[in-house]
Amino acid sequence: MARSKTGKTGLIFFPAFDWAISPTHPEREERLLYTRDQIFEEGLMDLPQIEEYKPRLAEMKDVARVHFCVPDVEAQVTEAHLIAAGSTLTLADAMEKGEIRNGFALVRPPGHHSMRVVHGNRGFCNVNNMAIMVEYLRTKYGHKRIAIVDTDVHHGDGSQDIFWHDPNVLFISFHQDGRTLYPGSGFTNEMGGPQALARTLNVPLPPGTTDEGIHYVLDELVLPILKDFQPDLVLNSAGQDNHYTDPLANMRFSAQGYALLNEKLSPDLCVLEGGYAIESALPYVNTGIIQAMAGLDYSHVREPDFVPGRFVQSQEMTREIEGTVQHLQEIWEERDALVEGALAELGDFYRRRKRIFYDTDMINESQEEAVRICPDCAGYMTIASSAQRGYGILNSAYCVSLPRGACSSCREDAREEYEEHVGDRKFGYVYLQDKDRDTFRSFNNMTRTQKNY
Fold first, then answer.
1. Phi and psi, residue 165, nearest 5°
2. H helix or E strand, kind and range, residue 117
């Protein structure tokens, strides 16, 4: 992979002026406008270390590569979603061409709560910008092993769901304890599917965790595991709602803490997720992160109300964090044995059932997932999904996904699964994802029409 010798940091701003859940919703365009003003006032955009890029639209195929959108991609995305996702791809291209060393997509709408199957908006997310970028990097540039570190205060349940069965994507999320915050998940026993155990690692943190606690997690757990995993790329879902002023959470992280985290993590590409303290946090946090990425001095970045030593972590909280880290260290060390043990107990298929709530659109979804346990490849996946709003059925879908490197037997079985359900009126829509061939089909059983991406 080409690497920039200039050391430039690429930036894209996309405030999405025409997209909001409501005019007063926390997820609105002002999230980025204050940041943009701050950065221009600081003169950062005039520095030779910074290169600004213009956003572009992602293609429908880029979305279909990741998601089963019900009834189709066009129904689940607006132009704003395609531009937010496309912005990440612009920076990916710039990095791969050697134009930049790293990059930060400051875009909205966010995406890390959007799962593999999409019936609507949940957690302010319709499509997963980070996952779309990951699959684009793997398809276009051939990357094999990628690490995603999600630093949003909310558990990245969508990204976790998408890469749950993929041993070549390491997903680490540290976040406020799900017992105290949406989406109510992200516990240490959520470790990935049987062939990818311990490639998902969740670090639930007690409310009130400070810079000290988060940097302990980074230094003692995240960085050593990244060194072991040796990914081609490290990507950061850069949520900023761990900040002490964020109105939707209860953590005590500072702008300086965020900047230092970025300096230590040294991600190749960052994608903005949450963060809703529009005036008191985002301009300072984003400025600190950008300066850290560009190798600039960020020591002067301070929130107007920041007081050193204001937040002190209790000994009880510190012990809890240390215990969680130790437990996850042990899980990581046993990762190969965990996979071996899980596969020894399974037959031909691994199955699980899930219920998913779309809090924004008030949709309840039921899923039955099955993964073929194949000795020759990662196996294919099927998902039977039914969504309802209130007492009425909204949509039902049958989804078939072939992973990279699928063997001929799994490829044939997956194709048969798709064809058997085409015409099955039990499901309104039938889908086939073929990652190796980069082809994606969607069949509408009501109109008897097929769409190819």
1. -105, 10
2. strand 117-118
For residue range 366-417, what is the model confidence (pLDDT) as tens digits?
Answer: 999 999 999 999 999 999 999 999 777 789 999 999 999 999 999 999 999 9
**Cis peptide upstream of residue 71 (ω within 30 degrees of 0):** yes
Phi, psi of 201 (to 5 degrees): -130, 125
- Specify whether the backbone of 383 is left (phi greater than 0), alpha (psi in -120 to 50) or beta: beta
0.85 surpassed by pTM: yes
16 pLDDT band (50/70/90 cuts)? low
Which DSSP string corresponds to 249-271? ---BB-HHHHHHHHHHH--SEEE
Q: What is the pLDDT of residue 17?
A: 60
Question: What are the φ/ψ torsions at residue 352 (nearest 5 degrees)?
Answer: -150, 155
Q: Is the dihedral of CA 63, 102, 236, 249 positive or negative?
A: negative
Return d(Cα 174, Cα 383) in angstroms, integer.
28
H/E stretch holding 11 reads strand 9-14
**Which are the catalytic amino acids?**
113
Element containing residue 342 per DSSP (H, E): helix 335-345
Do the Cβ atoms of 289 and 104 come closer than 8 Å?
A: yes
Residue 416, classified by CB atoms within 10 Å of its CB into exposed (0-12), middle (13-18) or buried (19+), is: exposed
| Alpha-carbon span 310 to 419, nearest angstrom | 62
The pLDDT of residue 1 is: 39
Q: Which of 380, 391, 385, 394 is nearest to 354 (CA)?
A: 385
Give the tens place of pLDDT for each residue, 273-317.
Answer: 988 887 888 889 999 999 999 999 999 999 999 998 889 999 999
Domains of the chain: residue spans and CATH: 9-336 (3.40.800.20), 348-452 (no CATH)
Give the model's pLDDT for residue 145: 97
Q: Is 158 left (phi over 0), alpha (psi -120 to 50) or beta?
A: alpha
* Residues 6+ positions from 423 with CB-CB distance below 8 Å: 445, 448
